[in-house]
Q: What sequence folds into this?
């Protein structure tokens, strides 16, 4: 099982980034996919979740949009109007009953 995040980097306040998470080794379409983030000194927090095929997508941050492409086994996080407080390591998560997988994380830094 692998979850590989990409797309992080340094961006100025107000800018945008799109994170990607490529999954392999499991039946991607059967899993709820989520993005979490962890800032230095803080606990990991849920950013957005998208359920299985045809499922709903929820984001706790109105500026972020989660989407998935089951044909490509990939989940995305579009982040707009980024703020310095969005600086964190962003992690991809795959979850179904009894199974929970994590990626290694990708760093997002919002700074001028």
A:
């Amino acid at each position: 099982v692998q979850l590989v995040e990409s797309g992080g980097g340094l961006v100025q306040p107000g800018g945008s980034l799109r994170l990607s998470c490529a999954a392999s080794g499991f039946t991607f379409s059967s899993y709820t996919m989520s993005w979490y983030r962890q800032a230095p000194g803080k606990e990991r927090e849920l950013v957005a979740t998208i359920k299985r095929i045809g499922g709903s997508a929820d984001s706790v941050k109105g500026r972020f949009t989660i989407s998935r492409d089951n044909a490509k086994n990939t989940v995305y996080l579009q982040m707009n109007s980024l703020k310095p407080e969005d600086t964190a390591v962003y992690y991809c998560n795959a979850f179904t009953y009894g199974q929970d997988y994590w990626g290694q994380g990708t760093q997002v830094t919002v700074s001028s």
